[in-house]
């Protein structure tokens, strides 16, 4: 299936690693021009270098160091994209502070400042980028915004993870209702535990804590997943690439789970 992304201009925040980088790679492979955004200039340039070799003649891959907690930096990111590429068609929000594996969940251990920090990046950061990019999309009558959230929105266990991910879903639906009639679809994807560069350390931690082998630890982590294994960042990116395409017009404001299926609950 041709996703009709060739020549589209996409901004991917959190694009230097993990799901963000996988999404950028998928969009490049589909022929889109991609602007990578993340805090670390060195990591961003390293990511860009891996994508340039995949790009076709005339296809651009840019890197713009950006801290999405800074509204001026976000506006500069979008202004730079428009100046270099002539506009912006797709925004993928994947910049977030990863929750430390095994972080405290008991009420007495929860700290106000930690929640503020997480919300500043994942919720307000997503709001800032959408606010800066949406006028360009509505002016041209087409656009796609995809927010990467997480399955913590659908389960108890991590208070801060649930709060920030539910907030992203609420933001997504609000923007979708406002922007849909202008040709801009807004969706949210909920990954579960996903195989990225962070996974080996998590597997090692579980294995050490339980006194089991790393393959056994990986099986423990995958136990709640109905397909029997963890989904990879590349598999999440395949779904995001579809949502970024013109072919996804029938999906707007909705949450798409991309964790391989959660055993037990029924969502309807």
Automatic annotation (TrEMBL):
Pfam families documented for this protein: adh_short (PF00106)
UniProt-listed SUPFAM superfamilies: NAD(P)-binding Rossmann-fold domains
Protein name from the UniProt record: NAD(P)-dependent dehydrogenase (Short-subunit alcohol dehydrogenase family)
Annotated keywords: Oxidoreductase
Family: Belongs to the short-chain dehydrogenases/reductases (SDR) family.
Entry annotated with the keyword Transcription regulation: no
Gene Ontology MF: a single term: oxidoreductase activity
Gene3D superfamilies: NAD(P)-binding Rossmann-like Domain
